Here is the input.
Amino acid sequence: MRPFTYQRVATAAEAAAAVAGNPAAKFLAGGTNLLDLMKLEIERPAHLVDVQDIEGLNAIEQTGDGGLRIGALVSNTALAADERVRRDYGVLTRAIVAGASGQLRNKATTAGNLLQRTRCPYFYDPNLPCNKRNPGSGCAALEGYSRQLAVIGTSDKCIATYPGDMAIALRVLDATVETVQPDGTERTIPFGEFHRLPGDAPEKDNVLAHGELITAVTLPRPIGGEHVYHKVRDRASYAFALVSVAAVIQPDGTGRVAFGGVAHKPWRVEAAEAAMPQGAAAVTAQVFADARPTEHNAFKLPLATRALAGVLAEAKG
Amino acid sequence: MDFNQPAGTNLFDNARVIGKPTPRIDGPLKTTGTAPYAYERHDVAPDAAYGYILGAAIAKGRISAMNVAEARRAPGVVAIVAAPDVAPVGKGMGNVAPLFGGSDVAHYHQAIAVVVAETFEQARAAAALIRVDYDRTPGAFDLARAAPHAGAEEQDDGAGDGGDPQSQQTPKRIGDFADAFAAAPVKVDATYTTPDESHAMIEPHATIAGWDGDKLTLWTSNQMIAWSKSSMAKILGIAEENVRLDSPYIGGGFGSKLFVRADAVCAALAAKEAGRPVKIALQRPLIANNTAHRHATIQRIRLGAGRDGRITAIAHECWSGNLDGQSGEDGTAQTPVLYAGANRLVASRVTHLDLPEGNAMRAPGEAVGHLALEVAMDELAEATGMDPVALRLANEPTGEVPGKPGTRYSERNLTRCLTEGAERFGWARRNARPGAVRDGRWLVGMGVAAGYRGAPTQKSAARVRLEADGLLVVETDMTDIGTGSYTIIAQTAAETMGLPLDRVSVRLGDSAFPAAAGSGGQWGAASSTAGVYAACVALRRKIGEQLGFAADDATFADGRITAGDRSWALTDAGAQVAEDGIAFGDFQKGYDLGTYAGHFAEVAVDAFTGVTRIRRMLAVCDAGRILNPMSARSQVIGAMVMAAGGALMEELVVDTRFGLFVNHDLAGYEVPVHLDIPHQEVVFLDTVDPVSTPLKAKGVGELGICGPGAAIANAIYNATGIRVREYPLTLDKYLDQLPQVA
Ligand SMILES: Cc1cc2nc3c(=O)[nH]c(=O)nc-3n(C[C@H](O)[C@H](O)[C@H](O)COP(=O)(O)OP(=O)(O)OC[C@H]3O[C@@H](n4cnc5c(N)ncnc54)[C@H](O)[C@@H]3O)c2cc1C
Ligand code: SF4
Here is the structure.
């Protein structure tokens, strides 16, 4: 870990300005991801701006149109336990509790969770090439051990996945991300546009500008239906998804679905959802039409179909 | 004390303390954080500086340049020791590549520099500033390529593997395997692979080293104190009497701490350079690639049998790889012992690989050998149409050990393990037709496997000191690696001296104490308690001489001694000390000392996703007198968890281009979590083995990992009808064979 300076701020605008003014600065929330990466010197901020004291970012509030506004600092535990979330957005609660451990969820924040970095094993070994960690150094995973990695939306620079669970549910719920930009203005980012594909710049996970602070994640009005999050992994708990399915299924068999563990972002193809009543294979044929799996992770394609088939079967009950 | 013939009736046959479920003496210390592990022994070296090891960034080659200038200037840095500036250290037991020194790199993450600083964070940050240039050399990292003939037909003649100059073991043959196999009406011929595995114990390798003139003390985490004391002397080229190791509490080892590793060597070198004590714990990635691991294997099994299931021909060949000069993983270890069969062939071959060093991990050999043999037996059961339990019973040897002519079983109750296990597990409810049992979305199946693990004995000594107030102090360099050694040793001493348990104080792990068997190969419990018994007998005799009675005929109970019609308090002779040990005679060589188990598992496989979840596991164990059923059970369930990990998820993944284990942390190397292990049951048969020790006890710590993995694999087959022979059995290997669902 490199030595760094540390600052606590009281307002969102102050935070954004503090980071924007220093190219080597980063926000610190729960620290469960950032501090691990700093110890490995994968992240090397010279200055940390701790956002945990900022007023007003720790609440879950009703919005004018009947949705929910989740403050950026709301912990994963508090969000998953919120009565309104459990009642109206069950897929979100289920996705959160399928991730990490109780202790980590107590500490992890809503914004930090969205920004957790990939779990590609090569990203974690500074001796090996990795474009995401060290742009231009190459991608060790392309021809290497890629069982966990992405099958779609990849580039020849990077095939990493976004590893989180909560974001897959947020994607299926059509959430939006609210931010304060360095100049103090606010913007709203639809969830599907928040995370990036690796393309030529795998070091950039999302569309945030340097110094842009997430203040909240907003959920539109509840859409009813059966809320399912199904996470497939080698062990029963405390592991990242091989494939996960976040779905909201309506009584008439229509619904929405997003997949985790398959791409550099939560993977949802809205156009494919019309095929939901025809069954899982009809949906995934479209969702994964452009898939480019490796030899090691080609199983994720049938797995995604089978996992969705299981979800649909259970929803039919 | 010489143990030269099987034990007769003795005090342990009427035991009051031995054999009773006894909570671990060190339990409260562990749960309250007051049993300090090596790295937290702040009292022994309050001024210790922090060392951090830099591992090599390449798998094979040479360091062409190392620049430590910037690191030296970094905040808090006290000293830096760079491998190219130091001659390679000597090699101790179990070391293939030197643990430090010189410019050659023999494997990834080999220690190439140690940075010492005032804080851990400073040392780590400075280590990242060291600049190293390498000349890479190509290496062999792929076992399947290094042993191209593994599993191939031409092995039939048993000649060495042509493509593999390092083939070592000449096949051991009995009868004529080839003819008998050819003639057998029922045959199984299958090849299984098991991956490299990491010990993944919770406490990393850790040492505080301090010098006092020529004298070196290592407060460390080590399973084998006497081995490691002499190894350390050899490694550093110093006199053995100048080395002291102290390792009273150990947070798991599983074999990874049998031998001195880089933490101890680098701490010693760095402490000398820094002129003050230095502490080092290996960071988690170094545990996979700097220390040792369990070797991957390729195993071919051929079974020929009559239609009645009786085996007529059995061959087990195993291939593994290692750095030069080291042995491999002998998956055939159980095969000469488990089943009858007149015509036999076993061979274990080792090829050269440039991966980090492979070495012992819990039940080396048998743990992975069962994953092949006991699945092959399941395949034979199916081929003969027999029940897998009945098949095993039909192949129970009579007389000598079939694969070790001239050797008898000391004690063997495998048939009881299997039949009583089948009864308890509800085996009769198993549907023999694979894929036939459904519970909602789950396919459910049951599997069985036999288990065998050798029960070797090792000489072991102790000192016992009766203090004037009647407290008995036991001192031996035996280690407690979380196994319960403190407790069974106290029980043994209490039993022999007729004292309540709380009047016995046990001190372990210090090389200043008499040398014990240490913790390895599941010999620790049986051997070290026998050694403590020997020392207690010597103390009884000494007291007898003082007070004038024949100790061997006297009764020691309740703090008193009774001989004929005379009686004394134990303390009547005042403070006394005695030292002795047990030495096991050659008569044991005529026996196969082993432990046995019947392992049962029920699993559910998600028909949609292929996810496998264990529902319950049972082990019925035959391991001689169980010294402490409570700690023995913990040993067995822990081993069953590890077996579940080996069957379902554990794998150090080799990147054959860069020559390393890539998933070198506990996020990438998955071991089971609580939710993976819903229900375990362990039953110990009430048996004793007089050939083993005066206590008629054997180890259990490794028995529990020999067999459950195969029972799980067989249960998956029973659940799905899919046979996967490539461990771990992850869903990607059989997803395409599951029933159509979408
Ligand atoms: C062992 C382990 C297992 C895990 N398993 C899972 C799992 O199964 N599923 C899963 O989904 N997750 C898992 N996680 C990841 C965990 O969910 C994340 O670490 C956590 O959500 C991050 O939140 P945080 O508040 O601690 O973020 P931090 O570590 O504080 O920050 C993460 C990043 O977000 C930035 N940031 C923080 N707040 C803001 C803000 N308001 N605006 C802009 N940028 C901000 C930081 O600068 C940093 O780059 C696991 C983590 C660990 C350590
Ligand atoms: S896949 Fe991405 S994260 Fe992984 S090594 Fe390649 S560039 Fe790095």
DSSP finds eleven helices and eleven strands in chain A. The mean pLDDT of chain A is 97. Residues 300-316 of chain A form the longest helix (17 residues).
